[in-house]
Amino acid sequence: MERAVGAVVVEVDTAGRTWVKSSASGGNINSACVEIAMRADRVAVRCSRNRGGERLTFTGSSWVSFLCDLKGA
To answer: Which residues of the chain have pLDDT under 50?
Structure first.
């Protein structure tokens, strides 16, 4: 899957996931932010300060619903 426009690649992990975060975070790889890795059927989310920690996983439709809820749509 193509990465989102305005995203900065921060890591490609051993499972082949490309983790990105918003360029609005200043493009600083070490800034506190969430990072996402998109696959064909899932979106994984992790904390940039704890990359080895817990992750949330969303289906594509759940991710879209989550983003719409955040935007108040």
So the answer is: 1-3
